[in-house]
């Protein structure tokens, strides 16, 4: 598969004003030193909708996606597995490949649930039109779901022979775990503060990613988009509690 | 990776009384002729919870999963990609592998949304405790989401050089599309009947899977679990409409 652009850089597309699912892909592109153009940030969301509609073979249902070879690679976990395999960035044995994909898909399940908290009735309605339902959803998410998922991540890290999910070397799924916890901390600061002590390995992993030399420049750059209340992780104080 | 059981058959685990996400895996195991033991149907759900808790390395967050080599392969799309690669069952080029995974992950998104329709507030509460919210969620799902996804599947099939997603040969994602449409037809019979004419390629694909010689015995057997209202696809007449 050849890159679609003359420069050899990937055409990466995602909503330009939120970190959302796109940020999971950006972290891996940046940490692995893979050249890319953040096309919707260059050309706008309308250009993205036009590009997406124009794909006949192998279309994307939704961003994020990479345009390559006349078709798309979309779905966050799929993009990450593809990049990791194609660029030999991270563990490559069959066992580790499917283990990382398993973790990544579980991370994406939490991402979807985090979005459902403020949009339980319908993604296409405003939060303001489903606030009562969101308050009920948030309570379950804070009390049951976050601890359940965090306990599973902690268990997975405890069995690893090192600080990372597959042992001694970081992978895209480690970067994604960092981004997930960061997003939850933005959305539910009181809740995360009250439980983080129960998950020392998970929290250490987050600290390690935050300090990665491969990401130092990126974190300081304007390529990194801050969490905000148009995205997946939103801070509505009324939905948070210790 | 060696099979964990002496017989060479996979240990497959999923809730024993519903088709749910497990059925996507069963269809591929059966159509590809891969030996497996449906462990929770043999030994019960309690045995599954015990087995799942016992996995230290590479644990599963939730069923379905395959126990193999002392760890698990879980997450439906991950299991299917793993089986397809390991058993050379379906297209194997890098391009087709990631395309099928992209489609499968989009199918799993619809599955999750179909469950959210009757459990919009929390998966851990009863439907009866969130009926009002479910009625609102169902309207959006019927009117906007199903047609949006179906249009995308139809577009993908239109670009394929044949009746299947990758052309002339079925893959696990084709089997999954059949199962998805079957589930939606069970849950929303009025709605599917009123729109199915708009998606002739998708409906033809479902007919082709239903008639596959590789699945003939399976469909007649008691290994195939019927849709029911304990599962992901549930028929609540009050949530359906043309």
UniProtKB/TrEMBL annotation, chains A, B:
Pfam families cross-referenced by the UniProt entry: GST_C_3
GO function terms (MF aspect): glutathione transferase activity
Location of the GST N-terminal domain: 9-91
GO biological process: glutathione metabolic process
Gene3D superfamilies on file: 1.20.1050.10, Glutaredoxin (3.40.30.10)
Residue ranges occupied by any GST C-terminal domain in the UniProt entry: 93-239
UniProt cross-references to InterPro entries, sorted A to Z: Glutathione-S-Trfase_C-like (IPR010987), Glutathione-S-Trfase_C_sf (IPR036282), Glutathione_S-Trfase_N (IPR004045), GST_C (IPR004046), GST_superfamily (IPR050213), Thioredoxin-like_sf (IPR036249)
SUPFAM superfamilies for this protein: GST C-terminal domain-like, Thioredoxin-like
Protein name, as recorded: Glutathione S-transferase
């Amino acid at each position: 598969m050849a890159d679609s652009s003359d420069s050899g850089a990937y055409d990466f597309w995602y909503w330009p004003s939120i970190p959302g699912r796109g940020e999971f892909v950006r972290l891996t592109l940046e940490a692995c030193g893979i050249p890319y153009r953040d096309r919707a940030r260059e050309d706008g969301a309308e250009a993205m909708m036009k590009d997406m509609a124009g794909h006949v073979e192998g279309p994307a249902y939704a961003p994020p996606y990479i345009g390559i070879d006349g078709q798309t690679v979309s779905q966050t976990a799929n993009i990450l597995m593809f990049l990791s395999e194609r660029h030999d960035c991270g563990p490559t044995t069959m066992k580790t490949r499917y283990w990382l994909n398993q973790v990544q898909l579980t991370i994406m399940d939490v991402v979807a649930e985090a979005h459902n908290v403020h949009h339980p009735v319908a993604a296409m309605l405003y939060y303001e039109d489903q606030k009562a339902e969101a308050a009920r959803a948030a309570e379950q998410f804070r009390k049951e779901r976050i601890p359940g998922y965090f306990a599973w991540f902690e268990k997975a890290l405890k069995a690893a022979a090192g600080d990372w999910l597959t042992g001694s070397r970081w992978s895209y799924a480690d970067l994604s775990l960092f981004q997930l916890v960061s997003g939850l901390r933005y959305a539910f600061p009181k809740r995360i503060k009250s439980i983080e002590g129960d998950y020392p390995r998970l929290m250490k992993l987050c600290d390690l990613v935050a300090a990665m030399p491969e990401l130092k420049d990126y974190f300081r750059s304007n390529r990194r988009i801050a969490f905000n209340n148009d995205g997946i992780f939103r801070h509505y104080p009324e939905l948070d509690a210790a």
